[in-house]
Design brief:
It contains seven helices and seven strands, in the order H-E-E-H-E-E-H-E-E-E-H-H-H-H. By secondary structure, it is an alpha+beta fold. Helix 4 packs across helix 7 and helix 5 packs across helix 7. The protein is globular.
Length: 216
Amino acid sequence: MSNELPESAAAPPTGAGESSPAPTRRTFIATGTAVGGAGGAGSVIGGTFLVDPEEATAAERPPSSRVSLTVNGIRRTVTVDNRTSLLDLLREHLGLTGSKKGCNAGAWGACTVLVDGQRYNACLTLAVRLEGADVTTIEGLADGDQLHPLQQAFIDEDAFQCGYCTLGQIMSGVGCIQEGHTGSPEEIREWMSGNVCRCGCYVKIVRAVEQTAAHK
């Protein structure tokens, strides 16, 4: 039996000077599907992946680094994903949950900590960049049962309501005092402006910082 198509079924020849007709949407999709299927089939032979499973696992594992830093006077060494923020290192790896994850974008200040005596938004700081750093969180501010003067001032002035931002406010206030930006209520507000209090306790927060700075 002949396999040749009758002349009526065969595609008409294209002249040397004629261009091929533009593909239709249907032929374009069909061609793309065929090419995609061929690519997918090429990655498997007899049901076995060409890539070694161990190599695939290693390729999928995110890069990590070993970092050593001092947190609240204690030397800590951990291995973390290079993308880990200082905030996640403190909360997820070291169990120090006093630094709060508010916005996770550096706009709230609830995650404020001191790094080598300077104020940092922990959510915006990569942990792997702090090799050898000295970090102080709210958990390390008091001396045993003796509260830090600013912690006591917050109680005296009733400078909090819900308390969620309070820990970051206190850490920022400590930094503000150490930096010497407490010459007036206006100066304190300016240098504490990165810490948001949704309850609106700003007047009492400023008073607490003033009180502590006056007795420094």
